[in-house]
Amino acid sequence: MKRNVGMLILFLLLGWLVGAWIATALEPVQSLSFLTASKVIKWSPQADLDIISYDFTIQMKLCLLSLLSMIISVWLYRKL
What we know:
By secondary structure, the protein is of the alpha+beta class. It has one domain. About 50% of the residues lie in helices and about 20% in strands. It is built from three helices and four strands; from the N terminus they run ααββββα. A two-stranded antiparallel ribbon has the order 1-4. It has a two-stranded antiparallel sheet with strand order 2-3. Strand 2 and strand 3 form a beta hairpin. The relative contact order is 0.24.
């Protein structure tokens, strides 16, 4: 079976999304705060040239639960 990079990226994104949803649902539980504490990674390139200007922001929110779910999604991808 031929592996597809696009399918791997889809699995990773879905794993990240599911992990983020679970982390949001578990935020009120204090004993699991080490899994749900998130770190925001932000990148904001901008330029103001004479004829064109742009301001673009990419922000990613990562937590341990999201990373674990991404690892599980890669494992599931390899099992297929």
